[in-house]
Protein 1
Amino acid sequence: MWLSIKRGAQNFSSHLRSLDGLLGVHRSQIKIKFSVKTSRRIRHLIVKMSGQSQRLNVVPTVTMLGIMKARLVGATRGHALLKKKSDALTVQFRAILKKIVSTKESMGEIMKSSAFALTEAKYVAGENIKHIVLENVQNASLKVRSRQENVAGVKLPKFEYFTEGETKNDLTGLARGGQQVQQCRAAYVKAIEVLVELASLQTSFLTLDEAIKTTNRRVNALENVVKPRMENTITYIKGELDELEREDFFRLKKIQGYKKREIEKQMAAAKQYAEEQVAEKVSLKKGISINSAHNLLSKTVEKDEDIIF
Amino acid sequence: MYGFEALTFNIHGGYLEAVVRGHRSSLLTASDYNNLCQCETLDDIKMHLSATEYGPYLQNEPSPLHTTTIVEKCTLKLVDEYKHMLCQATEPLSTFLEYITYGHMIDNVVLIVTGTLHERDVQELLEKCHPLGMFDSIASLAVAQNMRELYRLVLVDTPLAPYFSECITSEDLDDMNIEIMRNTLYKAYLEDFYKFCKKLGGATAEIMTDLLAFEADKRAVNITINSIGTELTRDDRKKLYSNFGLLYPYGHEELAVCEDVDQVRGALEKYPAYQSIFAKLSYGESQMLDKAFYEEEVKRLCLAFEQQFHYGVFFAYMRLREQEIRNLMWISECVAQNQKSRVHDSVVFIF
């Protein structure tokens, strides 16, 4: 058998002393293991019994039984809620996955067509068009903004792009290629749209993945650890209470038995005393010895066939 | 002295004309383009090109070839040929050859000026310039803090100086939109070139004025179409049109008030030369206009080679080479981006 003691417990030798009495095991046979995982709220030591899941080590009183029952109800409700949350998140997850696949395909197409639009612009306006446009730019006119969206309790980031300021350079390629440059611009704006959408989908995907893992971990923890522990504790408490009751009952019965015997003894003693008194009286009256008086009395007690009246 | 060039041209220009005609015969033909269009990867293209004149320039490139490398190397070949010709030329041919590159010079200057305005690194900007348009003091453009200094320190020594002083006062330089500045400079350049060719006289004048007129008209149409719907006012638009060409002056009047592509088409249908261009496009579409213009230009440039003893062949050769490089760029991009179906959209066969 081993015990796990909460981190920060002082003076565990005193624990040992109290425990060995409780458990009926000698101190030398108790091995100590430090466990970090005990819950903050439960300040009891967790006892592991060989072959079963753990139960809390509590004082088995009725109040404690009530508390444990309340905790079990809480754990059950929490488990149901978390399971619902996990299901909702999984549904969202699948929807996002589908959208990611379709967006990625369309992104491939759009990037291809925008690269080609750039080629057309280069053909008509000269190779330098790229440098001309780049040199003329001060700061970006298309920017990306992020905001939080709440989906089933999980905060997902979402990106959207917005245009800030107007683009000057409407006159790029005035003498040749202006049209192609504008078309190229439109194609790349579309490409940016798709890319921004894909970015927000992918970040939501990752965040949701984390959230689902955490929630599932909690659900499993509740289902496989906390609830069985509670149930075992409740069973233990009930068992102890029953045993106490039985002990009490037994004690009561024993005491009743003693009392009865006492009473019988007293009654027997009283009867003997009364008999002796009567014998004394008879002996005094008749002048015989007490013994023969006793015999007389006892004979009168036993019915003599010869005596008619 | 029209008609007597045969007597004296070969004294100074004969060697270079022969050189240029030799280069012209090495331009890629339709069958070359067909082969290139069939290529699956950029390495195939490199292999095909190594059989042409571009071989020595491309053979040292490492294997994951990039489309920009191909274009760079082909441009390098053009620059080498040009420099060779420039070295061998005498007046007035050397001035003529220099005039051909002023367009690129204007582009480079504008690029560096805007880059400096936005505080970019000078070395990077220099790398992005077109090699044909480099001149010695180009790096010092980056030093100037504003336009006035720019003009005073740098531009006044370059051949571009007269263009700046004619059309732009120094106040305008600070605020004016870069594109408008670029186009105003180019307009001044075209007019200057036109005057110079006229002064040369003879077959050169005739052929070059024709080619330059087409260029000016093409620019006018493009400016009109590209400025529809923008903030460019009609007067500004008119200021950007050159003062020669088939469309001058009445066509320009009409173009200045156009608000729509169809109106432009209507204005141009009066000129039979340009009518055929617009006939290729259906109503409302203007995407392929640039390609139609390129095709027309190539036709006219090829015609320039039909005559001898004039300088137009040099101009025509440079332009044809540039078109060829554009074709190569288009083909390699289509192959690299897996859009083989669009290859024939924009390749202009030279012959």
Protein 2
Amino acid sequence: MAAALLLVSSILFSCLAASCHGVTLSSLQKTLIVFVTASPSPGQVLKAGEDSITLTWSFNNSFPARTDSAYKTVQVKLCFAPISQQDRAWRKTEDNLVKDKTCQYKIVAKPYSPSNNTFSWTVQRDVPTGTYFVRAYAYNSADEEVAYGQTTDAHKTNNLFQVKAISGRHVSLDIASICFSSFSIVSLFGFFFLEKRRAKHSQEN
Amino acid sequence: MTDIEGSPGSSMHGVTGREPVLAFSVASPIVPTDTTAKFDLPVDSEHKAKKFKLFSFANPHMRTFHLSWISFFTCFVSTFAAAPLVPIIRDNLNLTKGDIGNAGVASVSGSIFSRLAMGAVCDMLGPRYGCAFVIMLTAPTVFCMSFVSDASGYIAVRFMIGFSLATFVSCQYWMSTMFNTKIIGLVNGTAAGWGNMGGGATQLLMPLLYEIIRRAGATPFTAWRIAFFIPGWLHVVMGILVLNLGQDLPDGNLGALQKKGDVAKDKFNKILWYAITNYRTWIFVLLYGYSMGVELSTDNVIAEYFYDRFDLKLHTAGVIAATFGMANLLARPFGGFASDYSARKFGMRGRLWTLWILQTLGGVFCILLGRANSLPFAVTNMIIFSIGAQAACGATFGIIPFVSRRSLGIISGLTGAGGNFGSGLTQLIFFTSSKFSTATGLTYMGFMICACTLPVTLVHFPQWGSMFLPPTKDVVKGSEEHYYAAEWNDDEKSKGMHQNSLKFAENSKSERGRRVASAPTPPNTTPNYV
């Protein structure tokens, strides 16, 4: 009875919240447990494009059994920790999930199942340098967020990991850049001195 | 008295203030045509074109026009090329808002100095080499973007690319060697406006290039670096075209430049003195900082603003940002036209009011742009803001020729520098701090525009009055001749150096508006040669 009430109220709540311009994070129940194990070892800075992390998530059984009946899909996202959001308003955390910019990188989307969920993810090459945590959102069939879970605590202070981005530079680009630059300078001065010489010759003749 | 080519202010010599802004040609016999010259366009005795044929590429006049404005356009493209790509660059280089703001300030600061040096370079080497030197020596700085790996490198490279905006000076200088003074206003205004459009075109071009390169397989953090090669190649191509197809003078190249004229050159320190001691100069320096200056600042921030605030895709934000800069095609000439039109009825007072109205309108819509919460409102406000600011730029240069006759060149240069300085200042104050959002920054910038436009009410010409005050009743002090001749001391007057100023004064009587007919003849202004 209590479970049914909780279920109904959680669905009602999420519907209400959705109708008020988007679901808010504070309205969601933290019913999922998400674990991330970084490989090769925790505490090491992960290199984008090379290192990978392994994620597991499951339903937190301390919640009533039927709470997750509305969950249809799960999306796992890479989110910025507060230190990487400082002086960067484009990564700002907002309670309204439509406006929230904390989690900008999608790791994986999978159909919901209460346990036995793992995924190994190589950090993408467009992930910037920063400090991160992982959050999983559960969606209902209307594609609205209904629950979430994250690897860190509510204040986002523990269990954070760091990523070092690729530089984006390539030796071939550097070489091309030097070649074109030299061409520009050489052709300018070449033209200049050639014209000076021609002028001098025509004056002497 | 023939003008020395390239002496300070010489590009505006002969501008009488009576030229209609949209004059496409000068009829003989106002300026006699040299019929012995074999050029595509009718030319005057110095072989400068009397006609402005927009869609021709004929050597040398129109070809120079096109080479010149396209070079300036290219430099605007590369100076603001980073702006629409900032959402990608900020992730690659781990930039904070402060870094992005500082880079924006750096991008407009470099040209303050390079423009000052460019005048001297054009004097020494001619405008063709002046243009080619700047554009080809800044090409490596554009290519340097591929090396940048942190905030300081980014700021340094944007600073160096900013030097390329000195092509503005070579562009205007070069036009003045090719076009008769009676149409030079239109020619220079068109070239400046079309060059400024580069700041808009780049917002379209760079995201498009980035998209194409990314789809071809590059990762985002490499794709933007490759995209920078295109503006770099444009620099090199334009430099080569300028060197090969361009010429300094209608009759040939630099050699003849220094041989012309046998009258003593005007002294630079005198010209500088009359420029800086005229309070109107500084008012227009401030005002231009809040018309051209805010235009440059907005070029730097607007794409990122739309991307973040309205969650648009990179190229959508770029398209919107581009409409801001591209409005220059018509808005700037419109400002000049509005200034001339109001002068016909209301004289100088009309010009001052036009400037104030246009610039304040721009300021008001800048405030509204920052406050707009929906995309359609934001875009509408942005467009009206752009028209106001850019038309105000055009209107400013409708008034500048009348501030001084002797020091016109330096005053134009100082005003231009004021534009860049204003841009650096507004970016520093409003778009570098994390204490408030970009939207709030735009609103504050709008308030500052309105406030900094108020000093135009203080501009008073004794002969024409000001926005609120009538001209002085004193017959001597209230004459145009007195105002312009006051820039020459008695010694110089006895040498007849002020003759051109007197001629200009006579023609500037049109700034009285409808009162021209009733102007009394002041005593002691009868020219010496009578």
